[in-house]
Structures
1.
Amino acid sequence: MKLITLGTGAGNPSMTRNNSASYLETAHGGYLIDAGAPAAASMIRKGIDFNDLRAVFITHLHEDHFGGLSGILNNRMRPSVRESPKWRGFWPEIWLPTEEAVSVFRQLMNLEHFGDDDDQILYRVIRPGLFYDDGYLKVRAVPNRHCRRMGKILPSYCFVLEAEGKKLVCTGDLAHDVTDFPVEDAADADLVLCELTHFHPDAGMSYFRRIHPGKLVFNHVAESYEKLFSEFSGELEYPAAVARDGDEFEF
Ligand SMILES: [Zn+2]
Ligand SMILES: [Zn+2]
């Protein structure tokens, strides 16, 4: 399997980093984990065919994680998709953290496509625990505490993805105290994709030392913390890297 980090920026895009979006490529199709802008353009530039896209999983409802989703949906709603010789016979499932988000995206796409081809997008709502299993890939949602508003914790998830005998953990965005880092799941993962913006690496190290993944890759990268990477990563007993846009990680 291969993970392609399409967008690796923190909240705002920078000169070199777009918003959060990663593509998991398997023998049976591809899956998008977050769809920050410009996810559709990034897929095209990496030569990824929209026909291969089986599902999109959005970790939480901050714009830097879903701002490119309408572009993805637009590409999949074109009637020409079905007539393409590359048509694989399935429409992608779009997994969102809340019912409200499903309603908003449905309205947005109706506005653009007048309700035509509405059946070509299969909206779903993520629930904690195992929520996706297409026979090739299983995805589990582990709630974190990244999204807070007026004392309430809103839906936001780490994802644990398993396929082809391999395990990938994507942290999504985490809480500032990083106490919601998914230690148990990351401990033996083949690849951990962890954000590097909402907590100081020193705080993260107390968790990174407790895991032993095949590789730890950072995305959602704050420039100030990227500068510290060479210092703190030297203390890890396994490979680690800071992802750039367009990087590919085989595992
Ligand atoms: Zn973010
Ligand atoms: Zn966020």
Note: The mean pLDDT is 95.
2.
Amino acid sequence: MHFDIPLTLPKVVILMGNSSRPGSIVIREIDHTPFEVFGEQHVVRELIWNGIAARSFDLVRLTDGAVLTDESFGEYPTDAQIAETLRDHGVDVELSVCMFCGEEVLPATAHRRRNGWVGNSCCRDDRLRATE
Ligand SMILES: [Zn+2]
């Protein structure tokens, strides 16, 4: 693309390049492990912003790319928060209970164990592996 910026004013160009407000531009997106709810793939998408350490997390329906979160989460959402977001969109998910910590977990993201479910967001794989 061509911009009509006079070459005699390099300083102005640099200032313009740095003028983006911190936290105003997504510099990187990280899709976490997708999971299926009623036949549709969903993913928690982590957004990294320019100039700030804080990240935000959105719930995205991969089928059509729709962002389901009205307001991004400040940290990786719990299964209960994911379920609530899905319910806001008319997806009536049922929660189970994590056999380790008692947190509500989404069967779609949890691991099936002999005696029940192990949550992905609360107890994750390390705990699962440690008990096997
Ligand atoms: Zn748990």
Note: The chain has one domain: 25-130.
3.
Amino acid sequence: MVRYYADRAKEYERIYHKPERQHDLLWLRDFIGRTFADTDVLELACGTGYWTEILARSAASVFATDINEEVLAIARSKPVDPGKTTFRRENAYDLPIFPQRFTGGLAAFWWSHVPKARLRDFLRGFHRAFAPAACVVFIDNCYVAGSSTPVSRTDEPGDTYQLRRLDDGSTHEVLKNFPTESELHAAVEGLAEDVRVEWLQYFWILSYVPKRFPTPPEDLSFGEVRLQFVRFVPNDPIRDFVPYYHFRILVSDGSDAGHINFRIGETEHVRVCAGHIGYEILEPFRGHGYALQACRAIAPFVRSFYDAVTITCDPDNYASLHTIERLGASFTDEVSVPPHHPHFQGGSRSKRRYRWTL
Ligand SMILES: C[S@@+](CC[C@H](N)C(=O)[O-])C[C@H]1O[C@@H](n2cnc3c(N)ncnc32)[C@H](O)[C@@H]1O
């Protein structure tokens, strides 16, 4: 896929000249211009910058990314305001935490190339980039017999493929899915709000607001441990408690061995006392490394919020210190527990703080 689009860079925009698609494209250009007016947009897989140019006319700023330098070179030559448009090579599956939070997101003709099994992980990573109430839009192709390249095969997980020819005579097999409306809704279920799907003759449009606190994946597991998501607890501003996810830690035979919490926020409570991750293993289940396995199991979900988190521990809690060190977290410092904090009232006087890079 990556090589194919690098090789296709110079001939890519021919796709936008197909006469029968002009009516829909006019509608889409207008829709994109209106939807992203005055927003700070992160564009994924921008290719040769066809949509970047349209975005840049009305958006406050555009941060356009693609994995291929070959297409980015063409995109950079587009007549866009350099003061508000940035092009950057990024892998859509492994986006960094950007210094700014975007208020809009666009990925045009990208969804169809994402293997179905990777969609939700990809979306979780993408959504880290957005400010609350951001608007995310995907646009892509409908399958139209006579206009679309025929599907050449379907694989075991249900992804479909096309055989595409380039001007140099080379043939490439490219993964290209044509989702139904219910597949689109299912893909963003629990991850998005205000979901809308619009069908034109040649294109579909999916728009939504990413959920700030998405539903965790159901398959968080590692070694002998499986996490069962129990509830999401909203913040408690009076007690300075941040929102958190609560999971039970189940072991191979289904027994409940304890719990693990994941807190979201950077308050004093998190930074100094509780950390982002808190766990407890019930007495009969101790000594098997279940806390360590639970941390490893929760890691993919935590990564959809943070690149690194704080874990704290009382200096005399040797079992927990052992877990944190085996996790590979690095020691930061030891800090005093503030006298007003509930942990102080519980007898805790200092915390060792660690940084766990995910
Ligand atoms: C169908 S083109 C879409 C280009 C552009 N969005 C448009 O609508 O004209 C798909 C793009 O995905 C890019 N791409 C492929 N794999 C990628 C990845 N892992 N991360 C980011 N971009 C990728 C390709 O280089 C190509 O430019």
Note: The chain has a mean pLDDT of 95.
4.
Amino acid sequence: MSVEELKSWISAHKDEIFANDAVGTGCFSYLPGEIIWAVTKRCNLKCKHCSISEVGSGELTTEEGFGLIEDAAKLGPVKFGFTGGEPLLREDIYDLIEYAASFDMQVVMATNGTLITNEVAKRLKKAGLERAAMSIDAVGSAHDVFRGVNGAFKNMLRGLKACEEEGLSVQFFTTVTRDNYSGIPEIIKFADDLNIWRIYLIYLIAVGRGKQISEACLSTDENMEFFDYTATEQTEVNTWLKPICNPQYWAYMEDKEIVDRVDGTKFTGCTAGITRFHIFPNGDVAPCAYLPVKAGNIKETPFLDIVRNSEMFKALRARKLKGHCGTCKYKRICGGCRSRAYATSGDYLGEDPVCSLWENQRD
Ligand code: SF4
Ligand code: SF4
């Protein structure tokens, strides 16, 4: 792949790449904000890399959930995402989706897909869900090994087809580790053949159950090779490949002069605690799913008060970063993955250790 080829691909796909849903390229992003609620810890699978297992127990009631949704809607036309655990295990999930969809918000759901039959897909669509994001870590039975349950791949595929038949948009979530790295091209081809709109290629953050497999995290060099691979592969497929937990991907692209900020693109880098907020099942509010540090709990303090007044969120918004990220010229457009900084140093304002772009900036 030449730089020119990738530039030309980006130019041809600019509308979709830099549409609102991809603004802040480099990680999750949606303006004016993304509110993600993990409605339950319960799950029917046993994924090796699950990030939620260390979070406290308890679930918000339906009424508390309605209150959260109302507060989120006051922030403007945000994206409101339901996740888990497996959100379909919550009995009131259709009521919650329907309530969220009654506001001017994009309503999405992350699911392992295995519980979605045609009937379920029909109910989700009717409730107002716009898109289901399904997790896939390999094509075929290797996916079952990652997910810890036989038949997980077959059932996810059934869910995918049911969503398509009912007119529900689907995207993929793929956690990229040393263990499945060699299978990533197959996943991308699989997605492209199915006309999947987008894949989030998610760096493994060693939190929750992921701590037990931290040696499977890509090193800095491997991650930079992954960026090269992703950029190259992007010119071959229509599925939009979006690295997640890797805001430095777009700093890297700018470093290589593949994209340019003056090109009308909007980079916001890591959005944790800035425009992205995660609510754990027990009501704890955190900056990101992979950053389990409590800014407050909505059973005690209204969600909007936490968003506005949390000292953690204020520090993240001000990008009071340390180490290489603090002095990096890409601080504003990248900021490093705050979850990875936290997972490795215990400091969510610390430097993101999986980056070498700062090295080119030395005198
Ligand atoms: S040093 Fe930090 S801010 Fe700079 S590109 Fe790397 S991760 Fe991003
Ligand atoms: S903390 Fe990491 S995973 Fe979360 S929004 Fe920031 S870059 Fe993405």
Note: The two ends are 30 Å apart (CA to CA).
